[in-house]
């Protein structure tokens, strides 16, 4: 039985195929997940490419941080593996490792309303910039220029994806009026 292909909003990107590995059809991916153990133990199916083709995930090996070697069902030789080069590798969001209370998936922030802890609405998240140190949200404000807010504990008072809002504590000088 072929597994249903999930829609684009049901999957999370975990990496991209950078090359074939060895002669038995393994693929090498540049991973953007740090949940390798969860992937190895709990994820049974990965989806590749724009068409999100399902593959049974048989084995995960991490030779070095950020690089994974995957063994996929049905990919049995180097030629088949090379044909997957460049494909995005995704998992179902429901198969992802559970998030800690203060964690979020980047895509969940888009469109959230940003509200000042005093109650005033600032705007809506238009973009998320990953700086390495912390994520920064670009907030689109009605009739004014966008503003940037760091997703740090001293600024974000409450992040509530379910109600669609981020409550922030504005530090002096953070927003130019």
In short:
This protein is mostly beta strands and 177 residues long.
Structure description:
The strands form two sheets. The protein has a six-stranded antiparallel β-barrel with strand order 1-2-5-4-3-6. Strands 10-9-8-7-12-11 form a six-stranded mixed β-sheet, with no helix packed on it. The longest helix is centred in the first third of the chain and has 7 residues, at 36-42. By secondary structure, the chain is mostly beta strands. Strand 1 (11-21) and strand 2 form a beta hairpin. The protein is built from two helices and twelve strands, in the order E-E-H-E-E-E-H-E-E-E-E-E-E-E. 7% of the residues lie in helices and 44% in strands. The model has no long low-confidence stretch (mean pLDDT 89). The chain starts with 10 loop residues before the first strand and ends in a 9-residue tail after the last strand.
């Amino acid at each position: 039985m072929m597994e249903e292909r999930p829609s684009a909003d049901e999957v999370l990107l975990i990496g991209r195929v950078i090359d074939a590995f060895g002669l038995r059809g393994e693929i090498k991916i540049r991973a953007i997940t740090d949940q390798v153990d969860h992937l190895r133990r709990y994820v049974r199916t990965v989806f590749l490419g724009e068409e999100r083709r399902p593959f049974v995930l048989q084995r995960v090996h991490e030779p070095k941080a950020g690089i994974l070697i995957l063994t996929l069902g049905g990919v049995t030789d180097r030629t088949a593996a090379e044909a997957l080069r460049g494909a995005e590798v995704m998992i179902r969001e429901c198969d992802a490792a559970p998030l800690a209370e203060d964690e979020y998936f980047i895509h969940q922030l888009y469109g959230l309303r940003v509200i000042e802890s005093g109650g005033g609405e600032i705007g809506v998240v238009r973009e998320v910039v990953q700086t390495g140190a912390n994520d920064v949200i670009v907030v689109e404000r009605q009739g004014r220029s966008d503003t940037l807010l760091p997703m740090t504990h001293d600024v974000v008072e409450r992040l509530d994806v379910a109600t669609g809002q981020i409550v922030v504590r504005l530090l002096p000088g953070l927003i130019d009026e």
